[in-house]
Design brief:
This protein has 78 residues and is mainly alpha-helical. It is built from three helices and two strands.
Length: 78
């Protein structure tokens, strides 16, 4: 996961790759996604996690942590 700044087709020194998607979301929506992943990790048994969600618990944990990191580094107090 990378942060794409407005009006840019580049992320730092890198261009957006052909297999990457750029999604515009609010901080609230991003926090909701991270929370939903966390709830799934707590509610779904490990043995059925992959069958029900299509990823391993480790992959889900990594994604949740990456979402939380984006929220952390982009936080701007009002």
């Amino acid at each position: 996961m990378k942060i794409l700044h407005p009006d840019s087709s580049r992320i730092g020194e890198e261009e957006v790759a052909d297999d990457e998607l750029v999604v515009a979301t609010t901080r609230g929506e991003l926090a909701t996604m991270a929370g939903a992943i966390n709830e799934a990790l707590e509610a779904v048994d490990k043995w059925e996690f992959g069958l029900r969600l299509g990823v391993t618990p480790a992959q889900a944990t990594e994604l949740r942590d990456r979402l939380n990191e984006v929220l952390r580094v982009t936080y701007r107090p009002e």
